[in-house]
Design brief:
Layout lengths: L2 H11 L10 H9 L1 E2 L21 E2 H4 L3 H15 L4 H13 L8 H5 L24 H21 L12 H4 L3 H14 L3 H14 L1 H9 L2 H15 L16 H12 L9 H5 L3 H17 L5 H17 L11 H10 L3 H4 L2 H14 L19 E2 L7 E2 L2 H8 L9 H11 L16 H12 L3 H11 L3 H8 L6 H9 L8
Parallel strand pairs: 1-2
Antiparallel strand pairs: 3-4
């Protein structure tokens, strides 16, 4: 057997990605022999396999050789081509349980005569190993191969000639379809190699594939689920180890993927991305932070990326700074991120949203320390701005000179409201004026005479109010189509 003959045979067998010629065991054997160049790489196939001495493959060489590139093309398209759930189930049944390989061919037969080497290094800890002869095991090997190839591409000096020569080599005709399949495979097989491939593809192909990742319903769910599974797998008496691929690796892997898919300024806040999984995400981060406290060394920037995202979620949702509920690492990052909205939205966009918020808030006393928690009126309007209400003169006096003194913004609220046509606070039944940002900016500049600096100062004084920031933070697109449109016009951000 020669490696060239085997590569040629495997390439031909994958000409139709929907109907591979051979079973999982054949492809797993072949792809397991590709040395990815990673220092920790070790062939997982037992050395006593009859062909083992002849089959030597190096990814470093394959990404530069046309014949080998063709195999990489087809292996990649096998994973990224569009398949329904039913197609995936059918494929698994055919490739796992109904081997139709022509075992009379000595080359094919030899690719079935192997076993795993239990002593070979495995970067994935117990509970996360992917060494099986199932379709999930094959997808894991393909994903690890793609990760290594993408990393080689990014670091290669002559990367224009390296595989993938273009994104269509491995993503096919549609970045979106490829991203959907990465996430669908992850939902079918929630394993770390697919997370690594997702992160590496995001770094290499950037916006075209990241936006579909951010739109996925499967990705946030599985990121949080794998993160929790990683924490659950850590022994209660764990005191730390210097093994980079030990029991802590699943946590690091998830955080790395989160960082990689957030490496562009895109529009979707972290909290919006995690959606209904925010609570479990924060709960899991609390447990990870407690583990980090016990370690004899710091898990450095990678884990900090995770705590930072937890802080962003906490800030985005305007959750209480309750140290009995949230770890100090999360709260510290929340304090750093709670005002980030000032940088994400333009001064005019933010001021418009603040004014809309004042118009839409339910009737309530705007004194943050009002003892009347029932929210029942009657209320009296501030005679200055005519858009802020109080339950009593005492509350108004306290708010006028309070922690966020109303006296510093009263006149600007009145000017902005009158010149832009916003309804007053006391008429909640009136639909707030839907005014475009460009028109709001024109009216402010021409009628209100407020400078950019004056508007920025106004925003800085309004946003610290949790009630206002909570609503303004939720100024997210109302549908996936809106989100896609925002992403394509560069106005979305995977942060607050």
């Amino acid at each position: 057997m020669t490696a060239t003959a085997l590569v040629d045979q495997a390439t031909q067998s994958l000409e139709d990605p929907y109907n591979p010629t051979f079973c999982c065991k054949y492809y797993i054997c072949l792809l397991s022999h590709i040395n990815t160049g990673d220092e920790s790489w070790e062939n997982p196939i037992a050395s006593d396999a009859p062909y083992a001495g002849n089959l030597k493959l190096s990814l470093d060489s394959m990404v530069n050789l046309p014949k080998s590139m063709k195999l990489l093309d087809r292996v990649s398209i096998f994973m990224t081509c569009d398949r329904s759930r039913e197609d995936m189930t059918s494929l698994a049944q055919r490739m796992e349980w109904h081997c139709e390989c022509d075992r009379t061919d000595s080359l094919v037969d030899s690719m079935h005569a192997w076993r795993w080497n239990p002593a070979a290094f495995d970067r994935y800890p117990e509970g996360f190993t992917c060494r099986t002869t199932t379709l999930g095991g094959l997808i894991a090997i393909i994903a690890d191969l793609l990760f290594a190839a993408f990393e080689l591409k990014r670091s290669g000096e002559d990367h224009q000639k390296q595989w993938p020569r273009s994104r269509t080599d491995c993503l096919g005709d549609s970045d979106e379809s490829a991203a959907v399949m990465f996430c669908r495979w992850l939902d079918e097989y929630p394993i770390l190699p697919i997370l690594r491939a997702i992160g590496a593809s995001a770094c290499l192909f950037a916006r075209g594939i990241i936006v579909p990742f951010l739109l996925s319903a499967h990705l946030p769910k599985n990121l949080v689920a794998i993160l929790k599974r990683g924490v659950d797998s850590i022994p209660s008496d764990f005191e730390g180890t210097m093994d980079a691929f030990g029991v802590l690796y699943p946590i690091t892997c998830v955080f790395t993927t989160m960082r990689d898919i957030s490496n562009i300024d895109d529009g979707v806040s972290t909290a919006y991305f995690f959606r209904e999984h925010c609570s479990l995400f924060l709960e899991t981060l609390n447990r990870i932070a407690a583990i980090d406290d016990r370690l004899p060394w710091s898990m450095n920037a990678t884990w900090d990326d995770g705590f930072s995202m937890g802080g962003v979620v906490h800030a985005k949702l305007v959750l209480p700074f309750d140290e009995s509920k949230y770890h100090s690492k999360i709260l510290d990052w929340s304090r750093l991120n709670r005002m980030t909205i000032l940088a994400v939205q333009t001064p005019y966009e933010l001021a418009r949203n603040v004014m809309l918020t004042l118009a839409e808030l339910p009737a309530q006393c705007m004194n943050a320390r009002c003892p009347n928690k029932s929210g029942q009126g009657p209320f009296m309007m501030c005679s200055g701005c005519k858009r802020v209400a109080y339950c009593s003169a005492e509350c108004q006096d306290k708010d006028w000179n309070g922690r966020l003194p109303h006296r510093s913004v009263c006149k600007k609220i009145r000017v902005l409201g009158d010149t832009t046509g916003m309804p007053i606070y006391s008429t909640p039944k009136i639909e707030p004026t839907q005014i475009e940002i460009s028109e709001f900016q024109r009216r402010v500049q021409e009628r209100a005479g407020l400078s950019m600096f004056s508007l920025m100062t106004f925003n800085e004084k309004m946003i610290p109010d949790d009630r206002i920031r909570r609503v303004v933070n939720d100024s997210e697109p109302s549908s996936s189509s809106d989100l896609r449109a925002m992403a394509l016009t560069n106005c979305i951000s995977f942060r607050i």
